[in-house]
Amino acid sequence: MSGSLVVLVDGEPMPEPDARAFWQRFSDWMEEHRGDLAGFAKAEGFASVHPGVDGGRPVLRASRSNAQRPYAPAKAEGGPGGSPSRHGGPSTGPGRRANGRKSRGKRPS
User: Which residues contact 93 (CB under 8 A, 6 or more apart)?
Assistant: First the structure.
């Protein structure tokens, strides 16, 4: 697929115009329902939707049968690293700075 936004449904690529529309709906949903992947999957008629990175491109993996996992930063397919999804994840929760380090409070003056 030549587009920059990829959607795989049970491993099969969605046609590019459909994938763009799916990504838009995903983005809109996540803005209003932060972290609710299960709700988005259900609204779209899937058992699960997981964001990820494949070959440096963002990808949504939708499945009609695979169970939904809790929301977490997206990981690159086949690699140990990965990059966080653009919608944030638990790594920036309470007590953590944007770089993932725990905050230690104010420095003494």
Answer: none
